[in-house]
Design a protein that fits this description.
With 269 residues, this protein is of the alpha/beta class. Helix content is 35%, strand content 14%. The protein is globular, with a radius of gyration of 18 Å. The two termini are 36 Å apart. The structure holds magnesium ion. Magnesium ion binds next to loops.
Length: 269
């Protein structure tokens, strides 16, 4: 990731960044830990947030005059074609991304379904912040990301948010856009946004296998002296007692409480 373009930090073309209350950049950190937010920091089974989100996105398509069948088809098509429904909506329907964010993520009843998990907070508090910085890496917009972290009472243990910025041109680029996971420039821009040192270890946990595979391809799997794999797949749908290695080589955990067994150097005992 080049440093600056015309005096502007180049990473801003690819990611949005929001420092939180305990923000410190990563220039002097030995490691950076990236946490996906949605369906990773809370249970998708208990909250049913993925279904609630899909309902709202389909309602949004219906609001554009599509019937139920077409709404469903187009939502799936845009998701497959562009990775994010919003890309197709802006491209083909010239919608206002902020209106979309307000009506979809913004209208989720998160206050009712999300509750703090003291054990998760305690786990993240065991990370030595002198050595390791902890940030969120999300494909949501910042409003939703902040809201979720606040409701989970994790907005003081997560130090900053790299998010998908619905307002940057790059998100809607016709050819190879690079502004959300799993697009490689999104990850490298995230590292640049927090000023991560080139030799810092990078850890990452996400409930999307394609996001993990992309991170590994970028080298977010070379962990210096540790033996474990730093890009870990979170899969609550297949509960296991311990982390396991899948056929593709990716390490999977079914509870974030298993992370210290994969990354013993990150968490204090
Ligand atoms: Mg997720």
């Amino acid at each position: 990731m080049p440093g600056t373009v015309n005096g502007t930090e180049a990473w801003r073309a690819h990611v949005g960044f929001e420092p939180l209350a305990t923000y410190a950049d990563a220039h002097d950190a030995q490691a950076v830990l990236w946490l996906d937010i949605d369906n990773t920091l809370y249970s998708q089974v208990d909250t049913r947030i993925p279904e609630l989100m899909a309902d709202r996105i389909r309602d949004y398509f219906r609001g554009l005059g599509l019937d139920d069948h077409d709404a469903e088809q187009l939502h799936t098509h845009y998701y497959k074609e562009y990775g994010l429904a919003i890309r197709g909506l802006v491209k083909h329907h010239t919608i206002d991304p902020m209106d979309y964010d307000e009506k979809c993520d913004g209208s989720l009843p998160l206050e009712r379904v999300l509750h703090p998990d003291p054990a998760l907070r305690a786990l993240l508090e065991r990370i030595d912040r002198r050595r390791v910085r902890v940030y969120a890496l999300t494909n949501a917009y910042k409003t939703h990301a902040r809201r979720v972290l606040s409701l989970l009472q994790l907005d003081t243990v997560v130090q900053g948010i790299v998010y998908c910025d619905y307002n940057i041109d790059e998100l809607y680029a016709t050819r190879s856009p690079s502004s959300c996971k799993p697009e490689p420039a999104f990850y490298t821009a995230a590292q640049a946004a927090v000023h991560a040192a080139p030799d810092a270890h990078v850890y990452f946990v996400d409930d999307s296998m394609q996001n993990i595979v992309a991170a590994r391809a970028l080298g977010w799997q070379s962990c210096g002296t540790c033996h474990a794999d730093p890009a870990v797949y979170f899969d609550e749908l297949h509960p296991t007692d311990a982390p396991r290695t899948l056929d593709n080589g990716v390490v999977s955990v079914s509870s974030l409480q298993q992370l210290p067994r994969v990354w013993p150097g990150v968490f204090a005992p």
